[in-house]
Structures are given as C-alpha cells and as structure tokens.
Amino acid sequence: MALRLFDTYTRSLREFKPLQLPEVRLYTCGPTVYDYAHIGNLRTYIFEDILRRVLEFNNYPVRHVMNITDVGHLTSDADTGEDKMEKGSRRTGMTAWQLAEFYAQAFKQDLQRLNIQEPTLWCKATDHIAEQIAFIQCIEANGYTYRTFDGIYFDTSRLPNYGYMARLNIEGLQAGARVEMGEKRNSTDFALWKFSSPGERRQMEWSSPWGVGFPGWHIECSTMSAEYLGTFFDIHCGGEDHIAVHHTNEIAQTEACHGTRLANFWMHGYFLQLDEQKMAKSTGGFLRLQTLLDRGYDPLAYRMFALSAHYRAKLNFTWESLDGAATALNRLRTAIYEWGSPGDGPAGQVDTGYAQRFLEQVNDDLNMPRAMALVWDLVKSDLAPAVKRATVLYFDRVLGLSLAEWKPVAEALPPEVLALVSQRQQARKEKRYKDADALRMQVSAAGFEIEDTPQGPRVHQRK
RNA sequence: GGCGACGUGGCCAAGUGGUAAGGCAAGGGUCUGCAAAACCCUUAUACAUGGGUUCGAUUCCCAUCGUCGCCUCCA
Q1: Of A217, A347, A387, A455, whose CB neighbour count within 10 A is largest?
Q2: Looking at the C1' of nucleotide B71, which residue has the nearest alpha carbon?
Q3: In this complex, which residue's CA is closest to the C1' atom of nucleotide B74?
C-alpha cells in the first residue's frame, strides 16, 4: 500500500517516495516563543507528529528538524510595529533571552504531555545568525535584494514564479491596498535583514555587513533547513496560515540562492476553531493545554479529539466534543487493559487483516478518522482478546495514545474523605442505606464520586 | 477589494454518481440496597437553499444564503 500525501505545492495527492534514503528529511515550522502555545497551535503539531509516525510505520527512518523562533519580529509590517519579544520582555519582566527559554520549555512540556515525539534536532534562530547572514549574502550576490532606510529587502518581482504555491494573485493583493509599503517596491517584498532603529537599544541585535539589526522572519527557516536537511528535502510542514506568506517567502529565498523549491512535499495543517472562530488572543478565545488540565482533562483526550478530524479540514472545538473524546479514550483504555489481564493466555499476534486495513487508512493522506473507525471495529470484533490487544497496541505506534502504559490509578484521597467512605461502607454493611446515601452526598460535596465494585468502593475526584 | 475553504442527525466528524463510517450524547435493558462504571440493544424522514447535467446527486456544474480562513505577527 503506497503512502499518498497531499502536496500543497501541486495541490494534489502524490505518492510519497523518499528522495534519498536511508532517511526521510522532515522540517516542521516551530513556535515563536513569546507566549504560551494554545490548543490550536498544538493541533498542528499533533498532525505533524502523526505524519512522522506514519512515515516510521512505513519503515522509513525520519530525520526531523524543528526550529524555535526566538528572534523578535515586528508585530506588523509597518515600521512603527512593536517587537513581540521586546514586548513580552516588558510584560513579564524577563529579558528577551529568558523569555525565549521560558516559553520554549513550556512548549516542550506541552508536546510531551501530548505524546508528541521530540524532533531529531531542535534549532534556534539566534544560534544561526551567521548562517542567516551568509544566506542573505547569497541572495544578494544573485541580485534579488535592495536596500531601504529600514532594511534589506527581497525583490519578489525578480522571481517570475513568486507565489506559485499559494497561487497568489499579485494584482489582486495590490488592489487590496492593505499592505504598508514603506519604501518597498512591491507589496509582496519582505525583509531579509532589519536595521535597529537609530537610538533604539534592542536586547537582540547583531552586526552584519549591512548594519546592526536582526534577521527577517522567513530567512531562518530557509537557512536552518538547508543547514540540517540540505537544500531540497522531503517534506516541509506548517499551519495553513503559512501558505501565503511564510512558506511562499521561504521558497522564494531558497530559489534565489539554491534554485530549489526547498521541499518535495509541502504539507499544511488546518486550523482548530473555537465556536466557529479562529483561536487567537485578539478574539478572546485562548485555550492552553494547561487550561484543559485545570478542568480535569487528560491531555491525551485532546490528542484523541484531534484524531477525530482529518488534518486538512478545520476542526471545531466544543467542550461537548472534548468530553466525547475523553470518554471514548477511557473506554478504549479500559478495554485494552482488561484484554491484558493475567490468565488470558499467551501474548496475541497482530491480526494481519486489520493491520492491512489500518495501513491503507493512514497511508491515504493520514485519514485518522477512518483509522479510528477501524479501531472501534476491531474492538467490537470477535477476535481473541490477546489478539485485539496486540493489534491495537500495534496501531498505537501511529495513534500515540500510550495505550499500553495506561492502567487505572488509585488516587490519593484526603483523610476526611477516606473516613467518610469507610463510614459509608460500615453503614452499608449494616444496611443503614439512608445513612449510606447521606455519606455519599457528603463525599460528593467534597468533590469525589464513589463507585461500588465487587472489590470494594472506588473513589475518584469528580471532573 | 483579491484568493480560498466550508455548510452531513443534539455535539464532533468521515465518505461516495446508485439514498450515508465512527465517536459522544439520548432512550431501553443487564448489573447494583440506590447509584456509578461496564456491557448489550435501540433510535433519529442528517447531506444549507434553488436550479442544471444524469437513468440516478449528498457526491459534478451554476446561482443564492450563511459561516470561516488567508492577503499583516500568526499553527
């Protein structure tokens, strides 16, 4: 079963073939670390994680590089825009460098909680300033740059193919007249190097052949991907919002310097929406993974939720649907746990029929909704429990739900709750059911639920 | 203004030129002192609207309405 992936560049499904084994080379655009990631951001990283796992499921070793954008960029294209890192620095009292480190760590913690595999290599923009300068010099030597009062710009009119991937209608963009031009020659031109403003004291600035300043946003990805993966590698990923600007400009830079379109496949994850709206701080809806945890959700319930939609379709977040994912995940975990109980005989073999169908679904442009439907089909099948268990755990290499590790946890209970529970047991034993019910109410008021099982009462914190 | 996407039962969401996966919710049952959990069963005249093409459209085309995204830092 061939692996087929949707390539934004050609706007078509293409069979994936590695350019150069032994490794598949994958670059995924990472976060700008001036604030926490929200669950919309994280949806894209889950998509990329699934992609990587599917590649590995197809027995391709993957060299995966992710950048961390820790250089401050302007909040708008206008010269007056504020720098996000500098702004964040003022907001938090940390230096820009501390700020970057802090949010990078928070980001990595989110990935870990979601079972997202770490990239083979992390790279930071500020660790590659010299390389970025060299890259800009390469573009400059080939005649694609010009200088304005505030920076070195890329002249997009020199590139006949500019904007191909995004299918940009350049004239239409100009008709919009919503772009601050400054001294730019074309509305689509963008900064390669920005000068520090006269008199401004930036925390992050470097000297360059053109003057003191900092690199433009797009250059870091072209530079670092070339550095670690070569100038034409297998797959480059990011969010759908990157198609029109960021990735378009990465391609332009790389074409200007190396003559390649950077990656053989361009793949984009679509947005999570909150009440049919884009999730962004500016519109008020900003849910962090931690927000979900604070509400008592398992982080993997969010991963389960993300698996319910295709990566190339918008996904609408509601608490009701997250509840559904959480319930479904727990049912799946419980089933698998019970299939693995001692006394079920020898470890099962993976069922080849289901394995084949699963491969077909994930290889069909990562159709996780279909793959999950197959999982439920398997769960309800008549196969031996040990076989079901082995098969689902085999699928979990792609799903990443840590199904093998899960087991019911005994929660630590406050002593007073414990006392109430044991009093209730006593009351039940003596058939004083009214008292027992009253005690249940008290426990409930303390935020805990009692479940009576043949092994005795099980108490857990109410979500 | 330009470009693009989407509109499937209460919620989330697949999919196909021959009337539609899956999960959750809901209803009933088993179990339970009562519950919960679990398990079993069941349900719903669900494919935005109006045209067109076709033997036949939810699936193709056009229009309308609605929603959303990108064009500016953005997953």
Answers
A1: A217
A2: A173
A3: A241
Nucleotides of B under 7 A from a protein CB: 1-6, 10-15, 21-25, 32-40, 67-75
- The alpha helices in A94-153, defined as continuous H runs, are 96-113, 129-141
Query: Which H/E stretch holds residue A74?
Result: none
Same domain, A424 and A386: no
Residue range A359-414, pLDDT digits in tens: 999 999 999 999 999 999 999 998 888 899 999 999 999 999 999 888 776 667 78
For position A21, which CATH number holds? Answer: 3.40.50.620
Q: A262 and A364 in one domain?
A: no
CA of A410 vs C1' of B14, distance in Å?
37
A174 lies in the same domain as A87? yes
DSSP-assigned letters across all residues of A236-260: EEEEGGGIIIIIHHHHHHHHHHHSS
- Judgement on whether residues A422 and A395 belong to the same structural domain of the protein: no
CB atoms within 10 A of CB A159: 17
Closest nucleotide relative to residue A78's CA, C1' based: B72
What is the extent of the structural domain holding A57?
4-269
Q: What is the largest distance, in Å, between two alpha-carbon atoms of chain A?
A: 91
Do both A66 and A195 map to the same domain? yes
pLDDT in tens, A182-207: 788 888 999 999 998 877 778 889 99
pLDDT at A175: 63
For the CA of A313 and the C1' of B6, the distance in angstroms is 9
For residues A73 and A32, give the distance between their C-alpha atoms in angstroms, rounded to a whole number.
9
* Mean pLDDT in residue range A333-346: 73
- Is residue A274, in this structure, part of any structural domain at all? no
